[in-house]
């Protein structure tokens, strides 16, 4: 990744808000020494302002798509309110293993972070978990894999991944929650932050941004009925 490449991934820019198309594989925060991460390129996104933009939320390293940044402190404070209050409308596309019996549904399962010797994960915990809700809709399927639209109504870490796994349909390429299905998509998680809508200024239209389908998901989505026009052809149950 270069500064020029990250600039080319800007989907929306105004005086307060940036939305970029984050590529899969790029972490948003620094990790191990020497690893590539978005923080190395924030200065290239100043576009004339004295300060670099900062993250308003986060995406997992292997999740692609819409990532929102605030261009100054007031913008960050406002974006913080929007995300904290659940006013940001987020749409994700996921490719999961199997086909759900219904065409849509609401997953309401409390999630709690569990530490383990070799890492951590989110688990369903009816007693100690935080309230978590994800609305989903089936967009296409070949019977073996399915293309879902997921709308998280809460903002828990790994929420879509944990919720889909909990109902028996883990995401393709998910080595944490995928129950051995990771090899179906190589080393890439089949999760894409497709769109985000932000009511940034009450008296103006919301900021609404859509990220293009990344190359690494095109074959998977096409197999489930996606076309450039976005039309899904659902296989019969």
Automatic annotation (TrEMBL):
Gene Ontology MF annotations: catalytic activity, acting on RNA; pseudouridine synthase activity; RNA binding
GO biological process, one term: enzyme-directed rRNA pseudouridine synthesis
Entry keywords, A to Z: Isomerase
Occurrences of domain Pseudouridine synthase RsuA/RluA-like (ranges): 17-166
CDD domains (alphabetical): PseudoU_synth_RluA_like
Record field: transmembrane: none
Pfam family, one: PseudoU_synth_2
UniProt protein name: tRNA pseudouridine32 synthase / 23S rRNA pseudouridine746 synthase
Organism, scientific name: Magnetospirillum fulvum
């Amino acid at each position: 990744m270069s500064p020029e490449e990250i600039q080319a991934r800007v989907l929306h820019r105004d005086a307060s808000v940036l939305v970029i198309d984050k590529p899969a594989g790029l972490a948003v925060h620094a990790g191990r020494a020497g690893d590539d991460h978005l923080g190395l390129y924030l200065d290239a996104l100043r576009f004339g302002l004295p300060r670099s933009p900062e993250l308003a939320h986060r995406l997992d390293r292997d999740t692609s798509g819409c990532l929102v940044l605030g261009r100054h402190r007031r913008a960050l404070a406002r974006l913080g309110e929007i995300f904290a209050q659940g006013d940001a409308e987020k749409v994700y596309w996921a490719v999961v293993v199997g086909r759900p019996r219904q065409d849509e549904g609401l997953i309401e399962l409390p999630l709690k972070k569990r530490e383990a010797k070799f890492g951590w994960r989110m688990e369903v915990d009816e007693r100690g978990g935080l309230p978590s809700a994800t609305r989903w809709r089936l967009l296409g399927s070949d019977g073996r894999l399915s293309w879902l639209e997921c709308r998280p109504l809460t903002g828990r870490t790994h929420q879509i991944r944990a919720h889909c796994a909990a109902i028996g349909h883990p995401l393709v390429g998910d080595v944490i929650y995928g129950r051995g299905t990771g090899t179906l998509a190589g080393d890439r998680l089949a999760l894409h932050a497709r769109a985000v809508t932000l009511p940034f200024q009450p008296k103006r239209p919301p900021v609404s941004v859509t990220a293009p389908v990344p190359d690494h998901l095109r074959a998977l989505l096409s197999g489930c009925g996606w076309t450039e026009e976005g039309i899904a052809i659902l296989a019969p149950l």
